[in-house]
């Protein structure tokens, strides 16, 4: 009887360890994310997601769901050919908007975040490749 219980426990642990790598690293709790993201100081950041996997679209969708559900952000897809699309600069006062500028080759978005949150929380997610603060470029 003890042998069958030990076998069940070992089987469970093997299944658990095999399943762990397939779990995406999205935050476990929206409360934790909201707490870390709360601040009046926000700066514009460019975020690039990892796209080197077969599940890049799924990862992007889960990440955007987290932005929407946990942070209350509105994700808008940038359409350079739409006359109704205004530039992100013109809508800079809307800190809750995230502009999805992804292409088939790269998943990228621009959004306003607390710098501590962007650098110490958002940048640590496994699905994130790069988080960089935007810089203004002026052309004469």
Features:
single chain; 5 strands; 5-stranded mixed β-sheet
Task: Describe what this molecule looks like in 3D.
With 140 residues, the protein is of the alpha+beta class. It has one domain. It has four helices and five strands. The chain has helices at residues 2-19, 30-37, 56-71, 115-120, and strands at residues 43-49, 74-77, 97-100, 107-113, 128-133. A five-stranded mixed sheet has the order 2-3-4-1-5. A hairpin with a 6-residue loop joins strand 3 and strand 4 (107-113).
Helix-strand blueprint:
Blueprint: H1 2-19, H2 30-37, E1 43-49, H3 56-71, E2 74-77, E3 97-100, E4 107-113, H4 115-120, E5 128-133
Shape: globular
Number of domains: 1
Instruction: State the helix count.
Output: 4
Strand line-up of the largest beta sheet: 2-3-4-1-5
Radius of gyration over alpha carbons?
A: 19 Å
Category from helices, strands and their pairing: alpha+beta
- The total beta strand count reads 5
Query: What proportion of the residues is helical, as a percent range?
Result: 25-40%
Biggest beta sheet attributes? 5 strands, mixed
Strand content: 15-25%
- Uncertain stretches of 5 or more adjacent residues: 16-27, 85-89
What value does the average pLDDT take? Answer: 77
Order of helices and strands: HHEHEEEHE
Compact summary:
The N and C termini lie far apart (about 80 Å).
């Amino acid at each position: 009887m003890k042998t069958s219980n030990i076998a069940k426990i070992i089987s469970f642990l093997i299944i658990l360890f095999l399943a762990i790598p397939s779990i995406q690293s999205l935050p476990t709790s929206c409360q934790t994310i909201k707490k870390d993201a709360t601040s009046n100081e926000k700066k514009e950041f460019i975020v690039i997601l990892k796209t080197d996997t077969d599940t890049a679209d799924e990862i992007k969708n889960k990440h955007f769901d987290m932005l929407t559900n946990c942070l209350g952000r509105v994700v808008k897809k940038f359409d350079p050919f739409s006359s109704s699309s205004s530039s992100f600069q013109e809508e800079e006062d809307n800190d809750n908007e995230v502009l999805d500028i992804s292409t088939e080759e790269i998943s990228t978005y621009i959004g306003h975040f607390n710098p501590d949150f962007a650098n110490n929380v958002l940048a640590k997610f496994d699905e994130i490749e790069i988080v960089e603060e935007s810089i203004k470029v002026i052309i004469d």
